[in-house]
Write a structure and sequence with these properties.
mainly alpha; 0% strand; 14 helices; MetI-like fold
Length: 310
Amino acid sequence: MIRFLLQRLLMAVLTLWVLSVITFVLGALAPGSPVERLLDQHADPAKIQALERQYGLDRPLPERYVVWLGKFLTGDMGISYRDQRPVAATLAERYPATAQLALGASLFAVLVGLPLGLIAALRRGSWIDSVATTMALTGVSVPAFVVLPLLLMVFAVRLRWFPVTYEREWWHLLLPAMALGSRPAALVARMTRASFLETLGQDFVRTARAKGLSWPLTVVRHAGKNALIPVLTVLGTSVGYMLGGSFVIERISAIPGVGPLSIMAVNERDYPMIQAVTLLGAALFIAVNLLVDILYGFLDPRLRATAPQR
């Protein structure tokens, strides 16, 4: 298991390094210059050269990358071209809102998707199964940026239970979290149903029932661990994406998270901000999936036994 985790950590570091190279090179080769964006393209060439020298844009590309990577690894993500503030300080202010939104959406996906999928599996072929399957299909088909306006129209505009936009209170994130978590909840429900149906038909489940074990205990103790493995995969992927920032949801609800910040950075050619957001989003995604791999080992002892041979 330890060797398996070390291999995954090495792969994660290699992935992040390749991504840092791609992000840096694409930013450097993109048309236009952030200096011209700041000063205007018709500014005095001497001022443009001075500012390029200040930001190190006059150096060769490999040298710029090595300097940037060395500073990044020490926590210095550079200075934002847009507001002249340290990128790390800006992200420290923005990421908590995105993390709270992602956490709320993840809880919604688990609390809704798991019971819905389990009930559908246990009541296969019944009207409950049909309703649950229809709800899951609807959740997968309707995007979050359509669900959120509908929720706002009902609960914020008509019933006035919630504000239309985020006003720095945690419960103001409930509607955006429900909208963002609607598709992951549907995916979890569909995967839970399919996984439990497959697991409940296995021989070890029938053996447990033949030994006199009660049906609820059979489902929880024997079928549950095996059935949850593919569900964790779906949930881990969804959480990783949500932690990277939900651009549209944050923009609609005026949530001061990473999403609006990324859009502004792209519009302003704020390369240090773009690079930092991209790498941190990738690092969070990899970290979540590494945690999922660890949970695999606890749910299925066979993975712990075969991990050293991978």
